[in-house]
Design brief:
CATH architecture: Orthogonal Bundle
CATH topology: Non-ribosomal Peptide Synthetase Peptidyl Carrier Protein, Chain A
Largest sheet: none
Helix content: 55-70%
Strand content: under 5%
Shape: globular
Radius of gyration: 12 Å
Number of strands: 0
Length: about 90
């Protein structure tokens, strides 16, 4: 469990944020392409990142965020950031 968030909660939350951003209730898979299937441009991806940061209270590195191509990669990044404890 990452800081009180289970992997499933993180995945569901990220998917809901993406659905809200693109205005769709269509189910997303880990393989869903952010650019080609959801038509997210770089600005929209940053907006999604900001919403994820607000939801979980953790900052997503912009370079890592921009490297995400699929929903699964974005979910994995969010999980990774939420599993790192501050020292």
């Amino acid at each position: 469990m990452e800081n009180g968030y289970t992997p499933d909660i993180i995945a569901t939350s990220v998917e809901q944020i993406l659905q809200q951003q693109v205005g769709s209730t269509e189910e997303l898979s880990e393989e869903t392409d952010l650019l080609n299937e959801l038509a997210l441009d770089s600005l929209e991806l940053v907006e999604v990142g900001l919403k994820i940061e607000k939801q979980f209270g953790k900052k997503l590195p912009i370079s890592d965020l921009r490297a995400c191509v699929t929903v699964g990669e974005l979910v994995a990044l969010t999980r990774q950031v939420n599993s790192v404890e501050k020292v």
